[in-house]
């Protein structure tokens, strides 16, 4: 049966949300969708990704919040970065270095971020590719943004290492956090240079960088951009995800179970999921307000007392972008919960139901979250924003999507389709977790691939 006939039979060729016609499932990803990766650069990036040397207090690595054990996320709604011990739901405050607040947003998964279509990073898109800029990037640093980042994926690494609650540490408690507090980021003597010098002081890293980057072999000092470029190469290689049952179905290599096929018909048809979750990675990479419950400290400045997260508006200053967040890719989505920009949902089926009609979903929503244990939010109770009637009304008023009625059977079918997006090789990882890193600092003991 030809695809056009099959899609029409499944109800995938009719009028869609907003009157547009459904185009049916996308073409499968191909090599052309990805930038090439240097294997040696990816191997160097693997060590850096799991090495705590990049954090201010040398106690947090990238994998602390993006761990393969939790589908490249962290298994909690909002994590503790600086001031925490352990991983995922077992992470808890360090009694000798108590955290000031939780990280403001749920840690996103890392699948397919090396694909060319991912030109914006973070829930609010505050870093994006922009060929009109000297650096090729648009970021909050504006004209201070240095050149040398090989991709937008590489450039996003600059944020966690500078963030007080994530990796830098509290003000003035180490050389990096002190420089960040003083506004010394780029240039000689800045925070990035301090991190690069830490790495350059380790003989094994010096040797590996010289082998990967000819300019370093010829005498150029290791720069922070070299570190982030290597990490980006690793992420792109390690978590490329395009061999799921759905991909094999698109390539005419396998069939899907009947319930998954029914879910696909809903996803690309009446349920209108693909109006946002489009393309080969199920994301339009745009920003939409979907009425998600807000919890945690909010995305605010330290001096602000509210706990709002206005999403894309913080970047664009366009009132139409209030409470809008970037559409996440759905690759391996069944393994990456909790879900939502603040991790408000721990039940994916309930999240599907809520997403189809946020206003109705908000009326029946019961507070749920998975939080690191032993942390007292103090003056900023986690549910303060959502429990404020005016703020909740504003969040829901921003929703533009038309509600869709889904029966329990519909939800089950969509969930079955989402299960078909699970790629075992990508979840396992290709290089895996190193047994040790050149700094000699401990690798997270719970950081292991599912095969171990």
Could you outline the blueprint of secondary structure elements for this entry?
Layout: H1 3-9, H2 39-49, E1 84-85, E2 92-93, E3 120-121, E4 127-129, E5 137-138, H3 152-155, H4 158-162, H5 164-168, H6 175-181, H7 191-200, H8 203-212, H9 214-217, H10 224-238, H11 245-250, H12 258-267, E6 287-289, H13 313-316, E7 324-326, H14 348-356, H15 358-364, H16 389-397, H17 408-419, H18 424-428
Antiparallel strand pairs: 1-2, 3-4, 4-5, 6-7
Helix pairs in contact: 2-10, 6-7, 12-17, 14-15, 14-17
Structure description:
With 452 residues, this protein is mainly alpha-helical. It has two domains: 3-31 and 243-422, Cytochrome Bc1 Complex, Chain D, domain 2, CATH 1.10.760; 39-73 and 108-240, Cytochrome Bc1 Complex, Chain D, domain 2, CATH 1.10.760. It has 18 helices and seven strands. It has helices at residues 3-9, 39-49, 152-155, 158-162, 164-168, 175-181, 191-200, 203-212, 214-217, 224-238, 245-250, 258-267, 313-316, 348-356, 358-364, 389-397, 408-419, 424-428, and strands spanning 84-85, 92-93, 120-121, 127-129, 137-138, 287-289, 324-326. The strands form three sheets. The chain has a three-stranded antiparallel beta sheet with strand order 3-4-5. It has a two-stranded antiparallel sheet with strand order 1-2. A hairpin with a 5-residue loop joins strand 3 (120-121) and strand 4. Helix 2 (39-49) crosses helix 10, helix 12 (258-267) crosses helix 17 (408-419) and helix 14 crosses helix 17. The two termini are 42 Å apart.
Keywords:
452 residues; mainly alpha; Cytochrome Bc1 Complex, Chain D, domain 2; 2 domains; three-stranded antiparallel beta sheet; 18 helices; disordered N terminus
